[in-house]
Design brief:
single chain, alpha/beta, 9-stranded mixed beta sheet, 18 helices, globular
């Protein structure tokens, strides 16, 4: 099971991406880490260095064989990965280590939901990567997420989660809806309002016991994430109560719940997994990594029944992604920086995409065969390389806040209550506001 790019934690999954294949030669010749520095504080008497990489869930480096390849390039450098299964357990430990100034790895992974807080409060603890990495290679909004007011870039972008729409072709056909991905895109070209209208049409002829979507909270997240105005303003003030993006997402989620268009499932939990296996949901909001979740839990029996098309309205959102940062306190800062540069270069990001299906943040990877020509056989050979690349280019730049994850999760809980318990929208919103204000102060 690959990761869910939520603050709640990365979850493992598998993905099989049909590509043309990167050669070992290309991996070895591009983005070379350079020779080791025998004068490094972390080197032994023979000049050998062990670099530690602390991360969470599944970044894909092991699956892509990248640490072994880096050792081939740099025989005196060995990379060891220290992985925490759940990000919710990893992050408090990272903060504790930063506060104490000890126990940090040479390279630390940082989840996108945490990067703003790190930038605001701990930027001085990390090396400025702008000196060695060309941030113009990334999608622009990705670079800005890790840039401190001083201009220092404290994290190199790994992957992103451009939003698409996954839909069950078989259920669409039974409900009299189009199954061709281009036709589905046309039916939702007006945005999420069109998506709900399609849901009402689905409901009229829906196979018994099925629902148009799995979760209104997932749709809420997609709507908010595709808006430039989300939970905070540029000054760092929480504006979720007045945010146009939040209001639109909430209203659409309330409408979906009231019209019984959603099964009201908590994503990734047992009931959600069972719904995919039993084909009781027709659509799932689909950031790049979600395809692996669906294929894993829907299983071989549903191969070819699913497809992928662009996000409603043709405006994508970003759900997920992480960064690699280099603590200044490390014994091998220079070598760690070289490793981070190599891991986030186009060829290595393409290799990770091929291995586990997470989409590169480095735009240079988009023209490489293993990305550009990628398809997903499970999803009717959907051209995911093109779909995700197009989505990445349409994602609006937005302000991130230090407690985005807390706000989103609190609102999602109340949306789930509207779905499952029939809580009225006004009452659910009041509870969400009280919970959020208590949490963020």
């Amino acid at each position: 099971m690959r990761i869910t790019r939520s603050v709640a934690g990365r979850r493992r999954r598998t993905a099989i991406v049909a590509t043309t294949g990167l050669t070992v030669t290309a991996l070895l010749l591009t983005g070379c880490g350079g020779s080791s520095d025998s004068g490094s504080k972390g080197a032994d008497a023979d000049g050998n260095i062990t670099l530690t990489v602390a991360d969470f869930g599944q970044f894909g480096y092991k699956e892509a064989g990248l640490f072994e390849k880096y050792h081939e390039l740099n025989p005196k450098i060995t990379v060891k990965e220290d992985t925490t299964a759940e990000e919710k357990n990893y992050y408090p430990k990272l903060l504790q280590q930063l506060n104490s100034g000890s126990g940090l790895a040479d390279v630390q992974g940082i989840e996108v939901g945490r990067i703003k807080e790190i930038v605001d409060t701990k930027a001085e603890s990390f090396a400025d990567l702008s000196k060695v990495i060309d941030v113009n290679e990334w999608v622009s909004w990705k670079a800005k997420q890790a840039t401190a007011p001083s201009g220092a870039v404290i994290g190199a972008g790994t992957d992103i989660g451009p939003m698409s729409l996954c839909y069950n072709r078989e259920l669409f056909e039974k409900a009299g809806l189009p199954t061709d991905r281009a036709e589905v895109a046309k039916r939702t070209a007006g945005g999420w309002e069109d998506f709900l209208a399609l849901g009402e049409e689905y409901k009229k002829k829906a196979p018994q016991g099925t629902y148009f979507m799995d979760s209104a909270s997932a749709m809420f997240n997609a709507v908010v994430s595709s808006s430039p105005e989300q939970y905070y303003d540029a000054s760092g003030k929480p504006v979720y109560k007045e945010s146009a993006g939040v209001k639109k997402g909430w209203d659409l989620a309330a409408e979906a719940a009231s019209k019984k268009l959603t099964q009201g499932l908590a994503q990734f939990e047992d009931q959600w997994q069972a719904a995919l296996r039993k084909s009781t949901v027709a659509t799932v909001v689909c950031p790049a990594w979600m395809a692996g979740q669906i294929s894993t839990y829907a299983g071989d029996a549903n191969k070819g029944k699913w497809d992928i098309t662009s996000a409603p309205g043709g405006v994508s959102a970003n759900w997920g992604g992480s960064f690699l940062a280099v603590p200044k306190s490390g014994k091998n800062v220079d070598e760690a920086t070289k490793l981070v540069k190599w891991l986030t270069a186009p060829e290595q990001q393409a290799a990770v995409f091929k291995a586990i299906g997470v989409f590169p943040s480095n735009q240079g990877a988009y023209e490489l065969p293993d990305v550009k020509s990628a398809t997903l056989p499970y999803f009717n050979n959907a051209p995911i390389g093109q779909i995700y690349a197009d989505g990445a280019k349409s994602i609006p730049e937005a302000v991130l806040g230090p407690k985005d994850g807390v706000i989103k999760d609190s609102i999602s809980t109340q949306i789930n209550n509207m779905e499952q318990r029939g809580t009225k929208p006004d009452a659910a919103w009041d509870v969400a506001v009280r919970t959020i204000d208590k949490a963020i102060g």
